[in-house]
Write a structure and sequence with these properties.
Elements: E1 20-27, H1 53-63, H2 65-68, E2 72-79, E3 83-90, H3 104-119, E4 129-133, H4 136-148
Antiparallel strand pairs: 1-3, 1-4, 2-3
Helix pairs in contact: 1-3
């Protein structure tokens, strides 16, 4: 039986290890709200969400990305109930030359793997969304989006009214 070929979400012929900024969104499997404690317990919008134990594992793994990949910096991020937003930067040396860097896919794969190994099973959807940031205005807009995302959770496109935190 022939299965339809999945269209790649990546830009064709783009080098995802090239210096620049990238906006990444990674969702939990079936978009289950497992990364915050008490999601759905209150109708009030969360002002300072409390990460669940799995959310803390994700947060710690994000903070260690730069230790594993010196050419990559995490400029900004947020752990949401059922997804993560990252603003990654692949850097150059002081003279503007490209450094040896992993691809964005490799960084995400490593992040997912570290979290899966620590938790004991996979909590992630197979793929992830990326956006190549093209200019300073785009970068600022994404930075602001990440800042405001927790307070706007109930308006988020990944918001699920019926929460089922059990995998």
């Amino acid at each position: 039986m022939d299965f339809p070929k999945r269209k790649s979400p990546r830009l064709p012929f783009y080098d995802y290890s090239a210096p620049g900024a990238y906006f990444i969104t990674i969702c939990t499997h079936n978009r289950k709200c497992i990364l915050w404690d008490g999601v759905g317990a209150s109708i009030a919008r969360p002002q300072s969400p409390q990460l669940s134990s799995w959310g803390m594992v994700v947060d710690q793994a994000i903070r260690k990305i730069e230790d594993h990949y010196p050419a990559v910096s995490v400029d900004h991020y947020v752990v949401m109930p059922n997804h993560v937003h990252l603003l990654l930067q692949i850097n150059t040396d002081p003279d503007g030359r490209a450094l040896l860097a992993p691809t964005v896919s490799r960084v995400v794969q490593q992040l997912k793997g570290v979290v899966t190994k620590h938790i004991g099973h996979c909590i992630w959807q197979k793929l992830f969304h990326d956006h190549v940031i093209r200019n300073e205005k785009d970068y600022s807009k994404i930075w602001e989006y990440i800042d405001n995302n927790p307070a706007r959770w109930q308006e988020d496109c990944f918001y699920e009214k019926e929460q089922n935190p059990i995998l």
